[in-house]
Amino acid sequence: MSAKIRILVVDDELIVRESLKGWLKKGGYEVDTAASGPESLEMLELAPYDLLFLDIMMPKMNGLEVLEIVKKRFPETLVVMITAYGSVETAVKAMKNGANDYLMKPFEPETLALLVEKLLQQKRIIDENLLLKEQVARSVRFENIIGVSEEMQKIFEMIMDISATDVPVLITGETGTGKELIAKAIHAKSPRKHGPFIPINCGAFPEHLLETELFGHEKGAFTGAHRAKKGRIEMSHGGTLFLDEVGEIPLKMQVDLLRVLETKSFHRVGGTEEINVDFRILAATNRNLLEEINKGNFRQDFYYRLNVISLHIPPLRERPEDIPVLAEHFMRRYSRETNKDIDTITPEAMEVLKRYPWPGNVRELQNAIERAVVISKKRCLDVDEFSFLQVSQKGAGEAKSLEEIEKEHIEAMLRAHDWNISKTARALKINRVTLHKKIKKYGLKRSGQDQCKPDNSRKS
Q1: Where are the domains of the chain?
Q2: DSSP state letter for 205
Q3: Alpha carbon distance 33, 82 (integer Å)
Q4: Overall pTM > 0.70
């Protein structure tokens, strides 16, 4: 750790204060003591503490009274109540009032060490989650675009620069990087923001249907045309036309669209009346259009007419620092939508997300978080909820060793049985001694995911 953990022990009994101080100092922690509630509050005012051990039964001001003040004024400090009576009612009341745990006298050093480690791990998760929330709050947003990476900040700046103009913009990037969101952002920041934003996925229609979708048609233009219909070009008058998957447009229609861009006029299919339109064109593609030009699949003049300004969206694997803030955003969104109280992604699960290559980019990450939220029965998302991603993290040429497979299987079974050694041993059909040896051999330990509590507080 870069900074020592600071702990304050509050108890009116000197022997308890000194015993706790001695044990905790052996653990490498920085420890102070206070003999009363008022003294502890004065010390908290002077310096922050990570953890507070607080005796319940003290004269002048009891532990529950101190707890109430600490939770209001120093909410970042974790609190462990100390009781000599083992009173379930008092402990329950303290936990309801915000205590993080309780410790009953007399206590053993081993029990104390485990409790402190558990609470500090919990604090690390809370702190990391708060940092993510702050990053999400600080990140610049345009139409739900989130990013803290340098690459995304440059894109946000460019959106601001080009939005005020009316020049065509070609947005490039892999599938799922959010090209339509970028187009919407440009429109939303432009003088045309009060006009319509009309998108069309050019790869979703066969050629004859794409023509009528873009240009519209007159009544009787073809069989089934029982009435006249406006096309997307006409609908975008006064606003923005967004051609998604522009690389899929057939060559003949590229000629027609080039004419529309140059003259800002067109005819509906089956019509003779010239219709004038005023719109801005934005286009997007996941193809390399220069290669398509060389292959004869895309017109060079149409390309240059669209590509006055080029905006490339890098894939998610090239900006891994955006993964945590995006994951946090989607977790909160789907937690609300599914009516679940999920508020944390464990550090181990976040490592899985950061290591995964995300071939589907932000869209795939969004789907993964949604799936994890739906299947989770805990208060936080853990490695188990993302096991479907881990399967594909080793390439076909990177076969796992027998030891790797055994280690992963034992760890998965331990998690599945909440680290109950007896149940896990029975499930693996080995004895407890063998299981303990395997745990020691592979260095398996309970970690952040074990802080996840069952989600028994579903909203109604």
Answers
A1: 6-137, 150-316, 319-451
A2: S
A3: 14
A4: no
d(CA 331, CA 350): 12
Task: Say if CB 59 and CB 36 are below 8 A apart.
Answer: yes
Rounded alpha-carbon distances, angstroms, from residue 148 to 140, 173, 187, 239, 345: 8, 18, 22, 30, 18
What is the per-residue DSSP string for 385-446? GGHHHHTTSS-TTSPPPHHHHHHHHHHHHHHHTTT-HHHHHHHHTS-HHHHHHHHHHHT---
The more confidently predicted of residues 284 and 360 is 284
Residue 88 class from Cβ within 10 Å (0-12 exposed, 13-18 middle, 19+ buried)? exposed
| Confidence check: pLDDT of 442 > 60 | yes
The pLDDT value given to residue 377:
87
Could you give the angle at the alpha carbon of 57 between the alpha carbons of 52 and 61, nearest 5°?
75
Distance (Å, whole) CA 87 – CA 179: 59
The fold for domain 319-451 equals Helicase, Ruva Protein; domain 3 (1.10.8)
pLDDT tens-digit readout, 17-33: 999 999 999 888 999 99
| CATH code for the structural domain at 150-316 | 3.40.50.300
What pLDDT is stored for residue 134 in this prediction?
Answer: 55
Neighbours of 65 (CB within 10 A): 13
Q: What is the pLDDT of residue 395?
A: 44
pLDDT at 437: 85
pLDDT of residue 131: 62
Of residues 448 and 396, more confidently modeled: 448
Q: Report residue 269: phi and psi, to 5°.
A: -60, 125
For 6-137, CATH gives 3.40.50.2300
Q: Which of 156, 248, 141 is nearest to 200 (CA)?
A: 248
Distance separating alpha carbons of residues 211 and 225, to the nearest angstrom: 14
On the question of pLDDT at 60 being above 50, the answer is yes
Q: What is the spatial distance between Cα 318 and Cα 209, in angstroms, rounded to a whole number?
A: 37
Domains 150-316 and 319-451 share a fold: no
Average pLDDT, the chain: 85
